[in-house]
Amino acid sequence: MSTAGKTDGGVDAFVYSVRADTRAWCPALVSDTLTVLVPLICAVLTSAAREPLAGAGLVLLTLGIAGGQVIALAYDGRSLGARMFGLRIVERSSGCPSGRLLVADLVGRRLRVLDIRRGRDPISSAVALYRFPERAAAQHPPARATNTVVLLDSGQRLPFARALVVGRNPTTDARGEQRFSWPDLSRTLSKTHARLEWDGESVWVTDLGSANGTAMEVGVERASLDPFVPTRMPADAVLWLGDRSLTIAGSRRDRRGASDAADDGDEAARGVHHA
């Protein structure tokens, strides 16, 4: 289960995260309140019993506990109660702890409480772009590792040699990886939406935490892809990136001739950038 929320780069920070229900966050809130309230009550009772030094010590202890709770919540997203009940409190927009903006986020109701025992921790390394192994050259002989061509719904043909990242304005940190900026006025396509990898025999597709998801249609069946999980694309499949679609050239939906393929391939190649 994934909650809604995207980073500025179009990556869903809450992939596989689960929002905490009242049965989880209420006990955590009560626990945090008691850790501050109990020593404060003891400080008041001690002062009333004419033990000023002990009372002052308990007041300092109360302030220390409260300050520690606030700092832990601001910079780790986990107070004592949150740790006890497996919770993480983060910003809705970034999936990260608030830091110095904790008070503003509390007032503006911009925080989200997640159950990290039941779902993924939003600040884990899994939110980073998937790093793919260099497998094509090792598993396939050079004769089979030829270019493949993707047919876009606009009619363009897009050749690529090994790996291609597609989106409105995609970024990649992999050396030699191609990227294609696909204009999309509907904005159903994320800035960095999906990755296509050609291993010499098949095209593998990976959704990169896109906002509107990636789906694969084969015949009458259409299934959404899990984010960051490479999935093999059959030759006759249609890949949906938001509201945009593409196929592998040569599939049953590809009706254009080889001469058109070469012309469009040269045209599309001019829009492909190398990392």
Description:
This is FHA domain-containing protein. Pfam families: FHA (PF00498). InterPro entries: FHA_dom (IPR000253), SMAD_FHA_dom_sf (IPR008984). It comes from Microbacterium galbinum. The chain has about 280 residues and is α+β, with helices and mostly antiparallel strands. The protein has two domains: about 20-125, no CATH class; about 140-275, Tumour Suppressor Smad4. It contains six helices and 14 strands. The protein has helices at about 20-50, 50-75, 80-85, 100-105, 135-140, 260-270; strands spanning about 85-90, 110-115, 150, 155-160, 165, 180, 195-200, 205, 215-220, 220-225, 230-235, 240, 245-250, 270-275. The longest helix is centred in the first third of the chain and has 27 residues, at about 20-50. The chain is elongated, with a radius of gyration of 26 Å.
Salient structural properties:
23% strand; alpha+beta; elongated
**End-to-end span in angstroms?**
33 Å
Quaternary state, please?
single chain
Pattern of helices and strands: HHHEHEHEEEEEEEEEEEHE
Name of the level-1 CATH class of the largest domain: Mainly Beta
CATH topology title of the largest domain: Tumour Suppressor Smad4
The major β-sheet equals:
6 strands, antiparallel
Strand order of the largest sheet: 4-3-13-12-9-10
Q: Ranges with pLDDT <50 over ≥5 residues? A: 1-9, 126-145, 251-265
Using the 3D structure, state the CATH architecture of the largest domain.
Sandwich
How much helix is in the residues?
25-40%
Radius of gyration: 26 Å
Beta-strand proportion: 15-25%
Q: What is the molecular shape? A: elongated
Number of domains: 2
Secondary structure tally: strands:
14
Give average pLDDT, whole number. 79
Q: Total number of helical segments?
A: 6
- Structural class of the helices, strands and pairings? alpha+beta
